[in-house]
Amino acid sequence: MIAATGVSKHYGDFAALRDVSIDIEAGSLTALLGPSGSGKSTLLRVIAGLETPDAGTVVIEGRDVTNVPPQRRDIGFVFQHYAAFKHMTVRDNVGFGLKVRKRPKAEIDAKVDELLTIVGLAGYQKRYPSQLSGGQRQRMALARALAVEPKVLLLDEPFGALDANVRAELRAWLRRLHEEVHVTTVLVTHDQEEAMELADRIVVLNAGEIEQAGAPRDLYDRPANEFVMGFLGPVARLGDGLVRPHDLVLQPDPDGTSIEAQVARIVHLGFEVRVELELAGDGALAAQLTRHELEQLEIAEGDIVYVRPAGGRFERATPEPAPAPVEQPAA
Amino acid sequence: MTTASPVGRLSVRVLALGYLALLLLVPIGVVLYRTFEPGLGEVWDSITTPAAVSAFWLTIELAAIAVPLNTIFGIVAALVLVRSRVRGKWLLQAFIDLPFAISPVVIGLALFLLYGRQGWLGPTLTDAGIQIIFSVPGMVLATIFVCLPFVVREVAPVLREIGDEQEQAAATLGASRWQTFRRITLPAIRWGVAYGVVLSTARAIGEFGAVSVVSGKISGETVTLPLLVENRYSNFDLSGAYAASALLAVIALATLLAMTLLQRKGDPR
Q: Are B172 and A145 inside 8 Å of each other by CB?
């Protein structure tokens, strides 16, 4: 388990972290999610010992490591741009941590072979990083970090530099790996989908502070504020509140809570359909329906419909008037 | 520069090569031609006189002391300049570039004023039985001074380019600072180091101005090959001067060759 308590970090006048405290459960996969500049990477680097906090403490598995250098924190760290040792073969890269610990060569070789099989790079031992694809390099970096059997695995935007399809593949792979290896893992990402898919627990950061922490489902369904709601998925503004596009109900007739709107455009996205609406008062929003729902409604562009939020969500989504402008749906 | 017409491109090449030939190749060619004009036997005799042999070994000695010291200093200074967060790094940078900015003769003079008999430290050192000026230690100091910037200048940009992520990765894997330097940083900067060593060596064996001021030119004791060339030239021993020059050129070529071979061997790919 990892506990960071009261961590602050400034770069000149810029406050990267302001009095941040989190507890990360042993064996869990936690995502630090936030926009760039939110402090998520800084927090990860503080846990790793690669940054020294101005204030606060870091405890890993019951040991206060605040003043312990990264070498002696028993961590594995994976960088966004792989940080592969370019002049070493895959074998030497993965075996590096064991070699500097002066383990016998036979033991290192066996461990390297085992890990390369786990990460799907068996047979690549003699290659150089320059002969690997981005995805392969990152899997090599993961094997390298796991070779020293760290107490915690820290991943700094590990898939950020990869193509979308490789990223999706590696995500699924990392999830399976975590189920096998079960090492406490902290993942930094700005991609809410990645966080939702991978993590048991998501910590949303913004401007150096934690906005909310919890299970992905809880954060999505019960966001603490408009920032979290906006960051975890697409939102539409209806009246004074925010609502998810798929939580909008379109109906042919008005009722007590509905608002009149005109259908501006219908976009078919396969199973889902996006209906873009011009509101009678002012403004526009997009509702997300299934194809089936649209067929039942029998609406066309130019028609007048009545829109309301699906049962109850409307009120819950607006706990308080938000001070900050709402983020656009994150990519 | 892009030139549209083939004629234009050709004339640019001719100009560049002609410039090179006129300023570099022709003079070197003349030296070599004049060296071997009297015949190989004469050349051999000229470079095996006691004075020439002594000058040869002294030149090698100066380079053998100055280059390793400057290499170690250069790597450390480059690490400080690029990796550390200390204030006033610009000052260190400026000091390292000083030998480039100051004329070598002035450097020699400065050493003379500091360590000479009437200098600030001279009397104390003389009392202690140490002689710096007009002896080898002074020449070593002068050589170190003029070669100082080369390794730093070559290594610092390479360090900047490779970044520190690999070093951080090594640290998280448990490598100590020394292990990280030995196994990660040094292999990554070895080309810069090698080039800096070649440049330092060339400068060390060829240095004239600074060494000349502090040497005292005692034949067979404090005369290096460049000083021998000048000495023979001013004594109208032209063929002797040419032969010593050719010997200098051979040392330079041997250094280049040795570095190239070392790099080949050290390169895994």
A: yes
